[in-house]
Amino acid sequence: MAAKNKTPVEAASAESMARRQRDISVSEFFLKNRHLLGFDNPRKALLTTVKEAVDNALDACEEADIIPEIAVEIRQVGEERFRVEITDNGPGIVRAQIPRIFAKLLYGSKFHRLRMSRGQQGIGISAAGMYGQLTTGTATCILSKVKSARQAHHIEVQIDTRKNTPTVLKDVEIDWHPTFPGLASEKNSQPEPLMSAHGTSVAIEMEAAYVRGRLSVDEYLRQCVIANPHLQLHYRIVLKSPAPAEAGTPSGETPASNATPTPPPTAWVSFARMTRTPPPPPLEIKPHPHGVELGMLMQMLKDTESRSLRSMLSQDFSRVSSAVALAICTQAGLDPKANPTRIANRDSEALFKAINDTKLMRPPTDVLSPIGEELLMAGLQKEIRADFCTAFSRPPTVYRGNPFQIEAGLAYSKPGENEELAADDPVRLLRFANRVPLLYQTGACAISKSIIGVNWKNYGLAQPRGALPLGPMIIVVHIASVWVPFTSESKEAIAHYPEIIREITAALQECGRRLSVFLSRRRRQAEMDRKRNYIELYIPHLAIGLKDILDLSSKEEQSVVTRLRGLLERTHLET
Amino acid sequence: MAAKNKTPVEAASAESMARRQRDISVSEFFLKNRHLLGFDNPRKALLTTVKEAVDNALDACEEADIIPEIAVEIRQVGEERFRVEITDNGPGIVRAQIPRIFAKLLYGSKFHRLRMSRGQQGIGISAAGMYGQLTTGTATCILSKVKSARQAHHIEVQIDTRKNTPTVLKDVEIDWHPTFPGLASEKNSQPEPLMSAHGTSVAIEMEAAYVRGRLSVDEYLRQCVIANPHLQLHYRIVLKSPAPAEAGTPSGETPASNATPTPPPTAWVSFARMTRTPPPPPLEIKPHPHGVELGMLMQMLKDTESRSLRSMLSQDFSRVSSAVALAICTQAGLDPKANPTRIANRDSEALFKAINDTKLMRPPTDVLSPIGEELLMAGLQKEIRADFCTAFSRPPTVYRGNPFQIEAGLAYSKPGENEELAADDPVRLLRFANRVPLLYQTGACAISKSIIGVNWKNYGLAQPRGALPLGPMIIVVHIASVWVPFTSESKEAIAHYPEIIREITAALQECGRRLSVFLSRRRRQAEMDRKRNYIELYIPHLAIGLKDILDLSSKEEQSVVTRLRGLLERTHLET
User: Fold this and answer.
1) Can you give the pTM of this predicted structure?
2) Is residue A443 included in any domain, yes or no?
3) Contact A487/B35, CB-based, under 8 Å?
4) 3-state class of A381 per DSSP?
5) Is residue A284 a contact partner of residue A313, using CB atoms and an 8 Å limit?
6) Which structural domain, as residue segments, surrounds residue B553?
7) Which terminus of chain B faces fewer neighbouring Cβ atoms within 10 Å, N or C?
């Protein structure tokens, strides 16, 4: 038996080793390493799937200039088996693209351009489908209708993981209909029905687990609404048995946030949009010359459609005018009319040096679409009842040639109003990247690192060494960028670029200063109230004493009391 | 100008969006996300490159049953530019495989089998070459000779990142010669020359930085020798200017460990092997049925070479005899003679359930190649002068169907002997996975988590809450597995599987218990010494007093002193 289960030991030769070498498809790779994509465990798998589908829906609506409306339905179909269906009113997907978008890793429209978007890798939704396929053997079901078509396409597709290619199992045209027939009749539903003339619905069945709490789909969707105030969201989850609460949260207790529905919504729940104004559409930019490395420059020289070096420089980069291009050529000692491909092979190093020796305008930064201070504060105030709320957007800036912008905000709770925010607990943290909530890997994220790095004692909060500040408060930080540097493919934490940490810190410090003004005013107010109470309490007794001693009339007594009160209040309250 | 740099805003349609969809090659993906592969910054890039090349060399020698000898040369060729060359005495690589092994991501022999090895992804060395190409535009140079050939192949290759395919720039046959001609004449060199009848040398030029300290190539190589006691290693680094020390370590200070050469070795330095006995060769196994998910089972049924379900089960899995296979078929209500492909499409769920309802032997665990307690201790004692040293190997066990084994050890410093190990600093930590040292991402690693989780106060060490214990000590942990679950492609930290954390904890606790015996014995000894000193100090004075009082002779005085000393020592030392 042992001999059959183990390959016998035999020294290999170069020839026998060569015969074992083979291609590894990217699907096989991520199937075996699926924790890299956010499919570590059944609970996280559920969240990641919803997240990838909602991200795609929002991106598609944004690109097509449609105000998004999305329905998320989670239905438990077995003990550890769930069906997740996400429907949007987006532009739809043309038939030919559906199989590859949903069943091929590393396929998409966002990777090759510099433009702020939620997706950027071309992995997410196909990975979710692949996980469903691995754990349940089922296919991803897509229903999509584009505006110009009469009918919708209903397609079922799996990944051939050996080849990383889609296998279409079903492909029919059917009427486009809302997949949530009960939606319109629910009392919670909004006047505007989800049904639109176009859209996409994707359904995946998978091994999963639903657990309420900080890392749940509920929390993700709630934060999603904060970061996307123009989003109309419908959500329901149909369970076979009551959902367990997070470890440490006894079942039946108040949920982690007052906005979490308890129990989870088995009927449709709608989050109404806060604004009908869509965010300014993000713009696509070309790479900045100072963010490009030598090898990349060589590749660009080979790939360009320009015939001359000078036009290549001014066409393929941002911030290089024709005059600047000429100056770079001169500096490098190269002929501006030279063929870029020839330069790639022979003189790219001289060109590279000349580019980096040339002073250039910084990359354009007005290409991002921040949430905005006002909507960020509105979102926070939806989360908690706050006594104080502020938000601050930094001006856009640049890391490694990529424009990015930081927004931060904080909301300080009314005393006793938000049970889950205790004065001696760490503050709650909301992290967003390109409007996507980040729930996992808080410790590894540049946002957490920046918050910990700020000295919150300066602003009136307690803060243990090397830890988050304490207080009944929520901090929110949003990074918007044409390319967000994540620490892993599962896009859960921001990498520690010094420029990014510096910007987050500056934004937090501004919010902290405003908080400290509020907190010291509140402390003074509390002190004043305490003193006024003393005065109110003792003055009548004082008056009675004086009346006896000085033998005052009631009228005189009243006058003394009034004057005393005025005197004492003035004295005390001015200190 | 703005209009040229930014794409104008225009609502996209499904059709216009479809035109933007395209393939993303895995090379492009990792080029843009190169921090995922360990190429975040120039310092780490240098380490990662050395690591990938040395890992490959060791794996190849192991597989071909060759006692490894490896030379690592790092040469600074520009301010931020280094040439890294690693030469081994391995079996060599046949010509046809060289381009793909060194210039194609996701290509290799280790991904598709379950066998303990250092490499497992088929990414590392090609990624290093791609990074060199990106930052310097140069090609990877390979020189390789197999035993059966008369000459070596000299090949220069780059990656076409658009297609993830190799582009061969040079391909000639030349004489095989040691690439380190100075090696044999150096006084440090070992009697056995690196020159052998076969081997491989790879050279990559890249943007990099050399900084001494805990995250340096020096440290990596030193730890490599500990985990691979059969390795003969030669190392030199030729710098243009003195290497900066790590931040916080003033230049010129004693290096982080007493084995670090200071300054870095510009002449060849050799680490002699501690044993000529190679480790027992790891064995390849088949997957265990209980570690396989439904989707994977379906794939295996489609891919099998067996004609019947019964033979597929017994041939393609470990721990499934023909009788057990029959029992599974019966349990599932399936014909043992059925065609596996047909089962895949129709009855895989019944089969999956039957497999998981069947009790099976655990996976074979004697397929791993641990370092061994003795060699682990020898390695530790090479690192520091220790008063106490212990190591403990747990029996092999299983996570998710994969056999793995934990070894742990610790060495407690002689007082005052190891300057860099202070009594009130956290202990030093050496982490190994399949004999590869892990230097980065300590905080994210299951090994650190386990060490922090052990209550070291029980064993006589101070330990701040949620932190490493304090003390002049080194802890070493090695995980050996047919598939090590890393938290990222750069393979720097072990994922937090509960089974793995449990095993590491158990191994550490055993070492801790042994340490506590040593520490309490040492404390008792110190106490005894202190008391003996008191006695020695006061007895003569006591004797003089008694002599006066009792009018003793010198001889009587001497006898009293002796008896008193005996009495007092007995009394005190027994308490």
Assistant:
1) 0.84
2) yes
3) yes
4) helix
5) no
6) 520-573
7) C
